[in-house]
Give the backbone structure.
Amino acid sequence: MASRLNPYLSFAGDARQAMEFYKSVFGGELTLNTFGESGMAGSPVEDQIMHSQLDSPSGYTIMASDTPPGMEHKPGTNLSVSLSGDDGGELRGYWEKLSADGTVSVPFEKQMWGDEFGACTDKFGISWMVNVIQG
């Protein structure tokens, strides 16, 4: 799988509705994963979206989630750039350069869904998420 770069949108509880709307606009295949499916069953956010992805027939990819508990949702700053793929060496290199002189909000390490993942804001104030898919 080649690495991909795409927008990652954050919502305040309406990610499902937003992504279904974007599917109606762009077409394609939509996957939705809830917080409940990811180990937070029984919590107030169990039906909210932990991760979603829309792959359009035109090659567009949009990823999104509801803002997790404990994190602030602030319209206007609810967009990150996502880098993902299975080339760990390439993506770890990007991570090192993007996070240098920036602020790391999620250390780059193996996550509960099995992938290596990290989130940071680069020295120019741009939010990045890097995910190495484990095969």
Q: What stands out?
A: The two ends are 10 Å apart (CA to CA). The beta strands are 4-11, 29-34, 49-55, 61-66, 79-85, 103-110, 116-121, 127-132. The longest strand covers residues 4-11. The chain has a mean pLDDT of 91.
